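pasting for the record
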Amino acid sequence: MNAMTPPMRDTRVTLSHGGGGKAMRELIDSVFTAVFEPDGTEDQARLMDAALQVPGARLAFTTDGFVVDPVEFPGGDIGKIAVCGTVNDLAVGGARPLWLSAAFIIEEGTEIALLRRVVASMRAEADKAGVRIVTGDTKVVGRGMADTLFVTTSGVGVIPPDRHLAADRVRPGDLVLVNGMLGDHGAAILAARGDMALSAPIRSDCAGLGHLMEAVLAAAPGMRASRDATRGGVASVLNEVAEAAGVGIEIDETALPLRPEVKGTCEILGLDPLYLANEGTLALFVPADQADAALAAMRARPEGQAATVIGQVIEGPAGRVSMRTLFGGARIVDMLVGEQLPRIC
């Protein structure tokens, strides 16, 4: 907070903080703009970057809402996940993330201290990812209408003219890579809720992956596609890609990177870790002759040190994902039906 920013007199959000008057201005100036430091106070951000001037460059735009419960959890909070999730949605399409917006739906009674922690977390992740939060909005609703805090972020990035990542470009013979452990975020959220009396020390894998994607694209420019394995886990991502490309995908259970704590939690609760959410794990589809280079590039970064090959793309049947099991058999890995765990992002 700079010297010109008025101090907050209230310790909790009231309905007057959403009323458009002095209380609202005090909240915005003290909690949000003092940290995000947008250019000016207009109702829109006015943006320019040299990447936009490159012939053939394309804009990428994405938006996402975040309703995670609890708002703060081991390894992150709703602010961190909002920035990382939007950055990752841009990065998996080959875009270089540049700008974000952030809108907050705040429940009456929310602690101002909690808002400050969330906003500080967002600024820290934005700085780490090399993006700026340039515009936003706040709304305050009555008690019981928003469960503390909801956040919506939108992101804009630029795709260089020589990048063309899409699921329908995946071909038989490509290898399926992941950069990190599977299911950490979903298991961490489940443990943090305390409903199951679980005490496993699991932290969310929440991380921005724009820099990792740049490193992989430099090392393996023939990468076909990439997806972040969020809701529905890696199983849903594989099914979406197999259907879009009209190919089959076969994965190896012995190759899946899983923490013992996550496996144990899933065994106790009857969950399948392939369907647990991740917030810092990508599935990448790479030609076989570039897989080693892609793995080396990921392992050189902290968010990719567990990178490994988990399977391969095959001729068919089109749209089918199967897994070679620990016992030498095979089973179908279908799309998730329903929701294993709601309110995880």
